[in-house]
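=== RUN LOG ===
request id: a7f3
mode: sequence -> structure
chains: 1
length: 137
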Amino acid sequence: MPTKRSARKGCGEASPAAFAAEDAHPSPVELLERSWGRVASTHDLQTLLAPPQPKSKPGLRSRLLGLLLLGAAVALVSLHTAHAAALLIPGPLQPALLRPLAEYSERIFTLSFVFHGTAVAAFLHWFSRKLFKHNSS
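=== RESULT ===
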């Protein structure tokens, strides 16, 4: 009885070598079925037909960048906590390190607000570009 693959080719029983050769080069339909999770309107057709690339391990540069971002996040949280402590602790009880934070509290708040407002605006701009992406090429 002819199999599905051999019936497609229009011949009788196919050999195991023919099956292996057929599996080595899947049809475009099989490739599209394999990459069904990607949205066709946001990807080029050739990208959808390409076989998935193996993921590589992160290099030294990306690890250092990750550590830098982690250090920046820890510093930001620490400074925000110190600023809150400088505002909550009364003047005579404040340690020497918190006094400048209390003096320049309004400037620090303004700069912090501008920085975070800009970061949120940049993220929303990026998100809207991703959400409403169209193939115009």
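=== NOTES ===
The chain has a mean pLDDT of 75.
Residues 4 and 13 are 10 Å apart (CA to CA).
=== END ===
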